């Protein structure tokens, strides 16, 4: 039952790969994991994925696009709303809330996942890390940890991202969960690349 519900709901929340929420104290970064100011994904989780893409655009422009959270719905089709919960540039302690739809499954109605994100670490133009839950009817990811790095390279910027998920519901079927986490991050990077390169 959890497997069927999970497969259906996680497909719709592939963009929720950008989860966020409450920042915690520094955690050890797994070997080879991405980090922002020395802090990476949740080292204890079995559910994590990492990907990257080259974007042929100025690093500053890509950073600005990515960290302008309130404008995410304009370029990310699966983000239906996004609201900053504080003013000013994104910084450690910044909070934002965003939503993404999840379709009905055989055991749950269609729902909207509400994701409340808190930035834990940030180095302007270089990296950002946020954490938090995604909550909807019939589906809950207790904690997502998402790290993004932006490295200027010849002709553009190399954007890397890594995310981990924890929670009883998704940990009950890790093989299914990871199959949806990966395409979610890939889709987010593809949208970022397409939008940044079109500017």
Uncertain ranges: 1-30
The largest pleated sheet is described as:
7 strands, antiparallel
- Approximately what portion of the residues adopt beta-strand conformation? 35-45%
As a whole number of angstroms, the C-alpha radius of gyration is 16 Å
CATH class: Alpha Beta
The count of domains is: 1
Q: What's the CATH architecture name?
A: 2-Layer Sandwich
Overall description:
This is Polyketide cyclase /reductase. It holds the Pfam family Polyketide_cyc2. Residues 1-28 form the signal peptide. The protein has one domain: 2-Layer Sandwich (Alpha-D-Glucose-1,6-Bisphosphate, Chain A, domain 4). Residues 1-30 have low confidence and may be disordered. The termini are far apart. The protein is of the alpha+beta class. A seven-stranded antiparallel sheet has the order 1-7-6-5-4-3-2. Helix 1 (2-12) runs parallel beside helix 5. A hairpin with a 2-residue loop joins strand 5 (127-136) and strand 6. It has five helices and seven strands, in the order αβααββββββαα.
């Amino acid at each position: 039952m959890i497997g069927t519900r999970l497969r259906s709901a996680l497909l719709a929340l592939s963009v929720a790969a950008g989860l966020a929420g409450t920042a915690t104290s520094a955690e050890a970064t797994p070997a080879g994991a991405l980090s922002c100011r020395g802090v990476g994904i949740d080292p204890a989780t079995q559910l994590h994925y990492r990907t990257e893409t080259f974007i042929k655009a100025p690093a500053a422009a890509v950073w600005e696009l990515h960290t302008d959270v309130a404008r995410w719905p304009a370029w990310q089709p699966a983000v239906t709303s996004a609201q900053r919960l504080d003013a000013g540039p994104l910084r450690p302690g910044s909070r934002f809330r965003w939503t993404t739809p999840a379709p009905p499954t055989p055991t749950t109605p269609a729902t909207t996942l509400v994701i409340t994100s808190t930035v834990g670490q940030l180095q302007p133009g270089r990296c950002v890390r946020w954490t938090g839950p995604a909550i909807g009817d019939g589906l809950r990811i207790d904690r997502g940890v998402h790290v993004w790095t932006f490295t200027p390279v010849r002709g553009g910027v190399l954007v890397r991202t890594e995310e981990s998920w924890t929670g009883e519901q998704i940990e009950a079927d890790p093989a299914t969960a990871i199959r949806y986490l990966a395409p979610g991050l890939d889709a987010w990077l593809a949208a970022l690349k397409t939008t940044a390169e079109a500017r």
